C-alpha cells in the first residue's frame, strides 16, 4: 500500500511543472471554437458543392452516353463557370481588403484630426470669448442714451395765450 502512495506522489511531483496543471485561456478557447464553426461551415459548403457536381456529372454522363462531344462541352461549361465564380469571389475579397485598408487609413486620419482639434480648442475658446467681449463693448459705444430733460417748451397750443372764442 505504501508503494502505491509513493507512486502517486512521484506522479504528482512529475506533473507539477507541466501544462496539464495550467489554467485554460477561455477567450482563446472561445476563439478557436468560433474558428472551428467557420471551418465546419466551409467544409459543409464544399461537400454540398461536390455532391451537386457529382450528381450533375453522373446525370450528364448518363444523358450524354450517346453524344460524348456534347457531354464534354457541358462539363467544360460547368468548369468554366466554377472558375469564373472563383475569380469573382477573389475580386470581391480584394475589394473587401481595399475597403478595410481605406477604413484603417481614414481612422488614423480621424485620430490626427481629433488631436489637432483638441490642441486648437483652447485657442478657439479664447478667441470666441474675446470676440464676445469686443461685441459687447461695440454695442455699448453704439447705443444712444435716452434721457428725459424738463424744459419750458410745449408742443401745440399753450395755456399762456388767451383762448379766443369762436362766437365773436
TrEMBL record:
Coiled coil (residue ranges): 86-116
Q: Name one Pfam family in it.
A: K-box
**Keywords linked to the UniProt accession:** Coiled coil
Domain (K-box) ranges: 8-54
Q: Which domain of life is it from?
A: Eukaryota
Q: Which InterPro entries match?
A: TF_Kbox (IPR002487)
Q: Which GO terms describe its molecular function?
A: DNA-binding transcription factor activity
Query: Single GO cellular component annotation?
Result: nucleus
Q: State what protein this is by name.
A: K-box domain-containing protein
The organism encoding this protein is: Paspalum notatum var. saurae
Native organism taxonomy: Eukaryota, Viridiplantae, Streptophyta, Embryophyta, Tracheophyta
